[in-house]
Amino acid sequence: MNGVLIIDKPAGLTSHDVVNRVRRILGQRSVGHLGTLDPLATGVLPLVVGNLTRLAQFYCMSEKVYEGIIRFGFATDTYDAEGEPTTSPKPVQLTLEQCRHLAASFQGMIEQIPPPFSAKKIHGVPAYRLARKHQEVPLKRIKVEIKEFEIVDVETDRANFRARAASGTYMRSVAHEMGQQVGCGAHLASLRRIGLAEFELAEAHSLDELALAANAGRAEEIFIHPRKLLPQFPSVTANEEMVAHIRSGRTVNLPELSRAKQVKVFFGQRELIAIATRVAGTLFHPRIVLVTAEPQLATRA
Question: Which of 53, 142, 154, 251 suits 227 as a labelling partner, its CA being 20 to 30 A distant?
Answer without folding.
Answer: 251
